[in-house]
């Protein structure tokens, strides 16, 4: 037994799997003494647990002695390997895979060098050191050019710095369903497009002509871009109220983009209700 692999049963499953997986990934190997493929897979898992040096914990569960756990996690054949992160299963495979495939499974689970650089960038950004954070993300991108999290983190920083063109380049080829942050980042880009307009002048313009919906739309974009979400959404609701068909229902569509930007919460719920009351 090592510090990176141990036998686990029902009595200590919560401690060694569920709780431990909140600190590092836990790979659970459901096996049985009579299982031939289990005898092939077990030494591979133990070898890699030692090689990875604590980046994950290997928890070995005799499914014959722990049938309740096997049933709870849907084990229908063995060996069955399930990976836990933050107290829940996140990936799995069945059967005795060759070492290369097991290693690939672990590499999807265990943070790599790019993830470590990304974590350092997060700390630097929280400390307000944007140039250093960006440099860490550049380093991470060199290690893993296809790392989506690195790309989106860099896009967020570019948006914070007002670098809309670079942010647009970073997320331009990313589909909306690739990550929950993508629609929010694209929404932020939309509102940054109104830069250069003057809030005071637009407010005066709308005050002089309440039906100047083009000016009202520009004002709404500026307010949202400046973080004045309620004021901006009020302007968008007013566009919907005055002319639903203005610029192909742009008031409602822009409001939905604000909802994407905010990502939910009480404020979004309140304005969704207000929008519904106007529409129906």
Sheet with most strands? 5 strands, mixed
Low-confidence segments? none
Q: Would you give the CATH topology of the largest domain? A: Glutaredoxin
Strand order of the largest sheet: 1-3-2-4-5
Mean pLDDT reading: 91
Radius of gyration computed on alpha carbons: 26 Å
Q: What is the N-to-C order of secondary-structure elements (H for helix, E for strand)?
A: EHEHEHEEHHHHHHHHHHH
Named CATH architecture of the largest domain: 3-Layer(aba) Sandwich
The tally of strands reads: 5
Overall number of structural domains: 3
Number of helices: 14
Give structural notes.
The structure is a single chain. With 280 residues, this protein is an alpha/beta fold. It has 3 domains: 5-109, Glutaredoxin, CATH 3.40.30; 113-177, Serine Threonine Protein Phosphatase 5, Tetratricopeptide repeat; 199-279, Serine Threonine Protein Phosphatase 5, Tetratricopeptide repeat, CATH 1.25.40.10. It has helices spanning 13-19, 36-51, 67-72, 99-109, 113-126, 130-143, 148-160, 164-171, 181-192, 199-208, 213-225, 229-242, 250-262, 266-279; strands at 5-7, 26-31, 57-62, 80-85, 88-94. A 5-stranded mixed β-sheet has the order 1-3-2-4-5, sandwiched between helices. A hairpin with a 2-residue loop joins strand 4 (80-85) and strand 5 (88-94). The mean pLDDT is 91.
């Amino acid at each position: 037994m090592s510090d990176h692999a141990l036998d686990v049963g029902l009595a200590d499953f919560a401690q060694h799997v569920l709780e431990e997986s909140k600190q590092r990934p836990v790979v659970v190997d459901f096996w049985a003494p009579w299982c031939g493929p289990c005898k092939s897979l077990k030494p591979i898992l133990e070898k890699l647990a030692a090689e990875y040096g604590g980046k994950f914990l290997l928890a070995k569960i005799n499914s014959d002695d722990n049938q309740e756990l096997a049933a709870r996690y849907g084990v229908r054949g063995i060996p069955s390997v399930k990976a836990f992160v933050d107290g829940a299963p996140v990936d799995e495979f069945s059967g005795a895979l060759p070492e290369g495939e097991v290693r690939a499974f672990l590499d999807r689970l265990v943070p790599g060098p790019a993830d470590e650089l990304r974590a350092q960038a997060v700390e630097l950004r929280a400390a307000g050191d944007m140039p250093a954070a960006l440099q860490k993300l550049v380093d991470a991108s060199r290690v893993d050019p296809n790392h989506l999290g690195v790309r989106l983190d860099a896009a967020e920083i570019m948006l914070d710095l007002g670098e809309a063109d670079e942010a647009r380049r970073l997320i331009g080829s990313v589909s909306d369903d690739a990550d929950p942050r993508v629609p929010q980042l694209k929404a932020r880009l939309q509102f940054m497009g109104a830069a250069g307009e003057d809030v005071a002048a637009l407010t005066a313009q709308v005050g002089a002509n309440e039906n100047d919906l083009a000016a009202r739309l520009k004002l709404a974009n500026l307010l949202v871009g400046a973080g004045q979400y309620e004021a901006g959404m009020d302007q968008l609701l007013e566009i919907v109220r005055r002319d639903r068909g203005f610029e192909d229902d742009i008031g409602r569509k822009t409001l939905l983009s604000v909802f994407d930007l905010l990502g939910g919460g009480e404020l979004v719920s309140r304005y969704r209700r207000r929008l519904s009351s106007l529409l129906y």
